[in-house]
Write a structure and sequence with these properties.
This protein is of the alpha+beta class. The chain is 34% helix and 30% strand. Strands 1, 2, 3, 4, 5, 6, 7, 8, 9, 10 and 11 form an eleven-stranded mixed sheet that branches.
Length: 304
């Protein structure tokens, strides 16, 4: 496993392998792809569309000629698998990571998030889940996430990366640095070469994967999260009650509701309280089937 395979020159892998080896990590979350962070930051700070922000990232050399691996979250998912494997001593592969990218994020999504006090970031989240009977499992996922403006990850701009670690004894730790570009990448590669050279000269070797915990991989549906749902609905009496009834039927309460009139239709934005991902997904499916819901424009998760 490449010691610098995550977040360019940020020494997060060494930290997980050595500095926190005696601690119990509960959660690792962070921005691990500089290209997508540059795009989302440009959309938030300049009002640019996704297409324009991607074009600028390509012009500056942050995005590849084919940006699919970055913008669809595949690069971040590979890094999430590495972080989860290291943090929870459990083999986690790319196929175990739920993955969603940023290509469907619109300027309207960015604006709505900003009004509500959030920034949208593509987060890699690796989490230790504990069931009611005390059994533990691991989940790793990548998706656009609403991050509160007062959280350290919300202020990570341009192509920078940051990883937020929550451990039982050490508490909350954040590692920050440039996650894209020639110089940071060169620094990381050179560090790997120096490490390999030292091992060769002194007869040592790099540490192997340590997966003694063998925790089961939890499905994405078992994760507790919150939803920010943006809908286009009919502007008439009783619509909000019908929508609220759907949430009530599934036992999910609403945290906030905001409506913007648009003539014959209205834009309705609801934020839920925490519930299982599988339950919230079923709710969105039922909302889409209501006659008075013309469209579910976007569904973005909130970081708990």
């Amino acid at each position: 496993m490449d010691p610098h395979a995550v977040a360019a020159a940020i020494p997060v892998v060494g930290m997980l392998r050595r500095s926190l080896a005696g601690d119990k990590i509960q959660r690792i979350s962070g921005i691990v792809n500089g290209t997508t962070n540059f795009i989302l930051d440009a959309m938030e700070t300049t009002g640019a569309s996704y297409e324009d922000a991607l074009a600028e990232a390509t012009r500056l050399g942050y995005a590849e000629a084919d940006p699919t691996a970055d913008v669809e979250g595949h690069d971040a998912a590979s890094k999430a698998a590495i972080l989860a494997s290291l943090g929870f001593y459990t083999r986690v592969t790319f196929d175990d990571v739920h993955c969603e990218g940023i290509s469907k994020i619109t300027a309207e999504d960015i604006e709505a998030a900003d009004r509500a006090g959030y920034s949208i970031k593509l987060l890699a989240i690796c989490e230790r889940l504990t069931a009611a009977d005390g059994t533990e499992s691991v989940n790793a996922r990548v998706h656009p996430t609403l991050v509160p403006k007062d959280h350290p990850l919300a202020s990570v701009n341009k192509s920078y990366n940051a990883i937020f670690v929550e451990a039982e004894a050490a508490g909350s730790l954040m590692f920050y640095g440039n996650g894209a570009g020639g110089n940071p990448t060169a620094s990381a590669v050179l560090g790997d070469l120096v490490g390999a050279s030292r091992n060769k000269v002194h007869g040592g070797r790099a540490p192997e994967d340590n997966t003694y915990a063998h925790l089961p991989i939890a499905s994405f549906g078992e994760v507790e999260t919150r939803y920010h749902i943006d809908m286009e609905v009919a502007d008439r009496t009783g619509v909000l009650a019908a929508i609220s009834n759907v949430f009530a039927e599934f036992g999910v309460s609403l945290r906030t509701v905001r409506q913007e009139d648009r003539g014959e239709t209205a834009r309705l934005i609801v934020v839920t309280h925490a519930a299982r991902e599988s339950v919230l997904a079923d709710i969105v499916e039922h909302l889409s089937g209501l006659d008075d819901v013309h469209a579910v424009n976007s569904v973005i998760r909130l970081d708990n």
